[in-house]
Design a protein that fits this description.
With 85 residues, the protein is mostly helical. It has 4 helices and no strands. The protein is globular, with a radius of gyration of 13 Å. InterPro entries: Acyl-CoA-binding_protein, Acyl-CoA-binding_sf, FERM/acyl-CoA-bd_prot_sf.
Length: 85
């Protein structure tokens, strides 16, 4: 898959998640959150007003910390394709 194809597939997956209305499991959302932030080089800390939510988000980012942008996009796409019809 070329870089352009990967970027297009990633954007399609992001749009699919954003338009999905059924509830998704928290662990899936946390992985998607971490992959999205890494894929888009977003270095900001989690910004929830609830410390527990920030802790879960920080943990998700920590677990995915060694991924490249390309790997994060691939993992994001894979999760979306597996869990969102």
């Amino acid at each position: 898959m070329t870089t352009e194809e990967l970027n297009e597939a990633f954007e399609e997956a992001v749009n699919k998640v954003n338009s999905y209305t059924d509830p998704l499991p928290a662990d899936l959302l946390l992985r998607l959150y971490a992959y999205y932030k890494i894929a888009n080089k977003i270095d900001s800390s989690p910004g929830s007003r609830k410390p527990l939510i920030n802790a879960f988000k920080t943990n998700a980012l920590f677990q995915a910390r060694n991924l490249s942008e390309k790997q994060a996009k691939e993992k994001y796409i894979d999760l979306v394709n597996r869990f969102i019809p």
